[in-house]
Automatic annotation (TrEMBL):
<dbReference type="InterPro" id="IPR023198">
    <property type="entry name" value="PGP-like_dom2"/>
</dbReference>
<feature type="active site" description="Proton donor/acceptor">
    <location>
        <position position="10"/>
    </location>
</feature>
<comment type="similarity">
    <text>Belongs to the HAD-like hydrolase superfamily. CbbY/CbbZ/Gph/YieH family.</text>
</comment>
<feature type="binding site">
    <location>
        <position position="74"/>
    </location>
    <ligand>
        <name>substrate</name>
    </ligand>
</feature>
<feature type="binding site">
    <location>
        <begin position="112"/>
        <end position="116"/>
    </location>
    <ligand>
        <name>substrate</name>
    </ligand>
</feature>
<feature type="active site" description="Proton donor/acceptor">
    <location>
        <position position="8"/>
    </location>
</feature>
<protein>
    <recommendedName>
        <fullName>Beta-phosphoglucomutase</fullName>
        <ecNumber>5.4.2.6</ecNumber>
    </recommendedName>
</protein>
<dbReference type="InterPro" id="IPR010972">
    <property type="entry name" value="Beta-PGM"/>
</dbReference>
<feature type="binding site">
    <location>
        <position position="168"/>
    </location>
    <ligand>
        <name>Mg(2+)</name>
    </ligand>
</feature>
<dbReference type="Pfam" id="PF00702">
    <property type="entry name" value="Hydrolase"/>
</dbReference>
<feature type="binding site">
    <location>
        <begin position="44"/>
        <end position="49"/>
    </location>
    <ligand>
        <name>substrate</name>
    </ligand>
</feature>
<feature type="binding site">
    <location>
        <position position="8"/>
    </location>
    <ligand>
        <name>Mg(2+)</name>
    </ligand>
</feature>
<keyword id="KW-0119">Carbohydrate metabolism</keyword>
<keyword id="KW-0413">Isomerase</keyword>
<feature type="binding site">
    <location>
        <position position="143"/>
    </location>
    <ligand>
        <name>substrate</name>
    </ligand>
</feature>
<dbReference type="GO" id="GO:0000287">
    <property type="term" value="F:magnesium ion binding"/>
</dbReference>
<dbReference type="InterPro" id="IPR010976">
    <property type="entry name" value="B-phosphoglucomutase_hydrolase"/>
</dbReference>
Length: 213
């Protein structure tokens, strides 16, 4: 049994992927760049802020100053959207699952690439259900690098090989496997290259399912 379960936040514990999409779409519309929901799913899910923008503006010329301004503008749009989030936006059964994990004596942690993870966790009122929180300020190398999962394991003092990672993006599953952890993927199985187990959603999942990974 794992000694720690490390969760990605966006797209796993809550559907902020939709808000990230809406914020990028707003920016794309401002700039007259075509951008669809399908592209978001295929190319931006779990991808960091700068890399997401690089995908959006590919082939177009922008200065570093303009790039910075666009990243800030997208983040402002995103912040407007997450400001209104509430505990009802935690995946159904999410709080119960986290409580069940903790009662079983297993540590819980967050490994999110987002610099807004603290705000989202606060809006969802689940901050206190985690023993450690690693976010977009914690490490330099983003997923698929192992760093953020290794950092999160360190926060809860559990060796990486005793951790289970949970992710909805393939770059995240790669990060988990690169960290030497078991990997539970959330989403359609075609999305992932080397998960240990795939389930369509974390909704109403109990600890037993996580222990079977
Ligand atoms: C990830 C999201 O968790 O964080 C991505 O899945 C997002 O969509 C990335 O781009 C960075 O987030 P932020 O909030 O720092 O721009
Ligand atoms: Mg995610």
């Amino acid at each position: 049994q794992p000694q720690a379960i490390i969760f990605d936040l966006d797209g796993v514990l809550t559907d902020t992927s939709e808000y990230h999409y809406q914020a990028w779409k707003h920016l794309a519309d401002d700039e007259g760049i075509p951008f669809t929901h399908e592209e978001n799913d295929a190319h931006l899910r779990g991808v960091g802020r700068r890399d997401s923008l690089m995908y959006l503006i590919r082939g177009r010329q922008y200065s570093e100053e303009q790039i910075q301004e666009m990243m800030n503008r997208k983040n402002q749009y995103y912040n407007e959207l997450i400001k209104k989030m509430s505990p009802g936006e935690v995946v159904p059964g999410g709080q119960a699952l986290l409580e069940e994990i903790r009662k079983a004596g297993i540590k819980t942690a967050i490994a999110s690439a987002s610099k807004n993870a603290d705000i989202v966790l606060d809006r969802l009122k689940i901050t206190s259900l985690f023993d450690g929180i690693a976010d977009g300020y914690s490490v330099v190398n983003g997923k698929p690098a192992a760093d953020i999962f290794v950092y999160a394991a360190g926060l809860v003092h559990v060796p990486t090989h005793n951790c289970l990672g949970v992710e909805d993006a393939d770059a995240g599953i790669e990060a988990i496997k690169n960290a030497g952890m078991r990997a539970l993927a959330i989403g359609p199985s075609e999305r992932f290259k080397r998960p240990d187990k795939v389930i369509p959603t974390l909704a109403n999942v109990r600890l037993q399912t996580l222990l079977e990974v």
